[in-house]
Specification:
mainly alpha; Arc Repressor Mutant, subunit A; 6 helices; 62% helix
Length: 154
């Protein structure tokens, strides 16, 4: 039996667990998910609690019901979840960054300038990774491979 632990209500934890299963690719679009009764057995919870968790996902259009057949993951579930999680994670990181910048007396303009600089570095790095190199690997990969083989002498 799996355990749901945390301060949030059990039905919310169950919905989050199912969302994470979808995000991790363990449950695919159009795939049937566990019934409320099976979830209640797996987690040792009341079937009504399991249904409440499933209904959260129905309301968010992550799963849908097929009468007489059960519940299935929607085609757009992964896209919906990625967007939702991206917004939550980025917002939380920005909130933390803004608080830290305030403590360090970094101005808004300086923070934006720093962020833009890092974004450009990331973009350049992505371009570098995708550019053809006449059969050679990027320098970073060569260094990583040497480190793995124990050839890096520091």
């Amino acid at each position: 039996m799996k355990q749901l632990e945390g301060s949030e209500p059990i039905y919310v934890q169950l919905a989050v667990w199912l969302e994470n299963e979808i995000l991790a690719g363990r449950v695919k679009p159009e795939e049937k998910i566990y019934s409320q009764y099976r979830l209640s057995e797996i987690f040792g919870i009341n079937p009504a609690t399991a249904l409440k968790g499933l209904n959260i996902l129905v309301d968010k259009e992550i799963v849908y019901k097929k009468r007489g057949l059960g519940m299935f993951v929607s085609i757009d579930a992964l896209k919906i979840l990625q967007k939702e999680h991206k917004n939550e994670v980025i917002t939380e990181q920005i909130r933390d960054l803004a608080a830290e910048a305030k403590l360090l007396e970094v101005s808004e303009e300086e923070l934006i300038r720093m962020l833009k600089k890092e974004m450009r570095k990331t973009e350049a790095s992505e371009l570098e990774k995708s550019a053809p190199m006449n059969g050679q690997r990027p320098v970073q990969s060569q260094v990583q491979n040497k480190t793995k083989k124990g050839e890096n002498h520091q």
